[in-house]
Structures are given as C-alpha cells and as structure tokens.
Design goal:
- The protein contains 14 helices and no strands.
- The protein is mostly helical.
- The protein has one domain: Glycosyltransferase, CATH 1.50.10.
- Helix 2 runs parallel beside helix 13 and helix 6 runs antiparallel to helix 7.
- The model has no long low-confidence stretch (mean pLDDT 94).
- Keywords: Membrane, Transmembrane, Transmembrane helix.
Length: 309
C-alpha cells in the first residue's frame, strides 16, 4: 500500500477534483454521478494518505512552485465532495467542507509568503490561479451549509484575485514560455473565469444579467482558446502536470450549464443554442478526463513496477 502511495503524484489530486466536478456536471444522471464521486473519493483519500504517511516529503515537494501551486486541488476536491456527503451526515460534510477551506487558506498563505514575495516573473505559472481563485469552489457549496455570506465574500476575493493575476500570468507566458513538462498547465487559463461564474451563480440569490453575460463571454473566450491548444497538449509525452487538462474543461462546462440555465429564461430564443453547446462541452469534459486518468494509471503502474524491484 505504501509503495503504491509513494508512486502517486501529488498532482493526481487534480484528477480527483475533476471527477467530483463531473459528478456535479452530470448530477441528473445518477449512476454516472455516483461512479464519478466514488472515483474522486478514492483518489482524494489516496493523496491525503500519501501526505499523512510522508508529511516531511510533502513539505519538501511544496518547496517547488509547480507542486505548491497544484497542491490546493486537494482542498478544492474536499470542498466539492462535501456536497455528496450531506446524504450521510450533515456534520461530517460540514467538517470536510470547513477543513477543505482551512487547508486551502493555509496553502494560500504559505504560497504567498514563500513565492509571491520573491517577485520573480519566472515563478509565475497559470497554476497560480488554483491557489488564489480555486477557493471559489467554497462559494459553490456555501449555501448548503447556511454560509451564504461567506460564499459571497470568497467569490469577491476570487474575482479580484483573477483581475490582479491575469496580466501577470499573461506577461510571464509572453516573455518566458513554459517548459514542456509544464505546458499542460496552460489549460488552467480556462478555469478561473468559469469558476468565478459558477461561484457567482451558486452564491447569489439575485443575479445581474449583464454581469452574468460578461463573465460567460469571457469564460467561453478562454475556454475556446484552451480547446484550440488541447490537441497539442494531449499529444505531449505524459507528465504529472497533465492533470491540469481536466478540471478546467469540467468547470467550464459547469459554469456554462449554470449560467445558461439562468439566461435561458431571459433569452428563450437562445435556449436551443445553449443546449447544443452544453452537450458539446459535457462530451469534451467526459472524454478528456478519462483519457488523462488512464495515462495516469499507466504512469503509476510503470513507477510501481520499478519501486518493487
């Protein structure tokens, strides 16, 4: 068991996050949703056990900015999966939700003091959005725990963080291209606006139509950009950073689903187009996440065989 956990890369948490995202995206298909939650739970639990069994190794890993930036996908997964624990126990679900927020904030503070204060452009990566905007998953679930005010505050934090980070990340990408092992993280550009949009739709009872439209247009523009890069990114050799190809596609589809569900009542003539695009987005997410997961399994199998020798 320990050897298996040793070969499990920390970025695998992003795959676990993606599966619980799929469970939300396909919530109306109960069997698929249950399968996705189960897979997510196993992955997130495995990553958690890996960290607990080798906490010193974890602390060593997050001294590197790429791994430190991807680590909060574990806390994001915990926050999202708490929704599905409500059917078993409210207090267990709330504990996991609160613990996820606590871990995320702790990692955010660590990341800021360790890397941001260095003010080195070479350290800036698209995965920085995970650290600062990723916590908006709490906005998507806050109302389930009667914490709507907290959800709204977290949304505004994520929204401002995106506005501050975007020009910095774009400057980095323009001046210093990503090395090949980190190129899959380019897909993360599709995530922050969509995550903020999903958080807005879930956290606020009263929505401003023009604000929803602006966020949706921006989210879809970044999503289309990432889709154009996707064939090249999928053709790269496998790297643990390939996990970055998963959640951005899932949250983009989820944000589109939530926002067009609202906008469909405002613009009923667009409902048919919204339906078609949503099905396309869902198909892409449901296709890419298993592909990356299978590549992860192959990678881990090879690593496990080496570790056994």
């Amino acid at each position: 068991m320990k050897k298996l956990l040793q070969v499990l890369p920390l970025p695998a948490a992003a795959v676990g996050l993606s599966f619980v995202g799929l469970a939300n995206l396909f919530s109306e298909i109960k069997l698929l949703s249950i399968i996705c939650v189960t897979v997510s739970g196993w992955i997130l639990l495995s990553v958690s056990l890996k960290i607990m069994f080798d906490f010193h190794g974890f602390l060593k890993q997050i001294k590197e900015v790429p791994l430190a930036a991807i680590a909060p996908t574990l806390s994001m997964g915990m926050i999202l999966i708490s929704k599905f624990l409500l059917t078993w126990s409210y207090w267990l679900a709330f504990l996991i939700w609160f613990l996820g927020i606590f871990i995320h904030v702790s990692l955010l503070i660590y990341f800021t003091t360790t890397f941001v204060n260095k003010k080195q452009l070479s350290l800036v990566l698209p995965s920085w959005f995970i650290v600062y905007v990723g916590i908006v998953v709490a906005s998507m679930t806050a109302s389930m725990f009667d914490q709507q005010n907290l959800g709204e505050i977290i949304y505004f934090f994520g929204f401002l963080a995106f506005l501050i980070l975007l020009p910095v990340v774009l400057k980095r990408l323009k001046n210093l291209p990503l090395p090949e092992p980190l190129r899959p993280t380019l897909a993360i550009l599709a995530a922050p606006v969509s995550l903020n949009l999903a958080g807005y739709m879930m956290a606020f009872d009263e929505k401003i139509v023009w604000f929803v439209v602006i966020q949706l247009v921006a989210a879809q523009a970044l999503y289309v950009f990432v889709l154009c890069q996707l064939p090249k990114l999928l053709c790269l050799p496998f790297y643990p950073s390939s996990a970055a190809l998963t959640f951005p596609l899932v949250i983009s589809a989820m944000a589109f689903k939530l926002s067009t569900g609202f906008l469909g009542s405002v613009y009923p003539n667009m409902s048919g187009l919204f339906w078609f695009i949503l099905r396309l987005d869902q198909a892409i997410a449901l296709g890419v996440v298993p592909i990356v997961s299978i590549r992860y399994l192959r990678f881990m199998t090879k690593q496990w065989k080496v570790a056994k020798k």
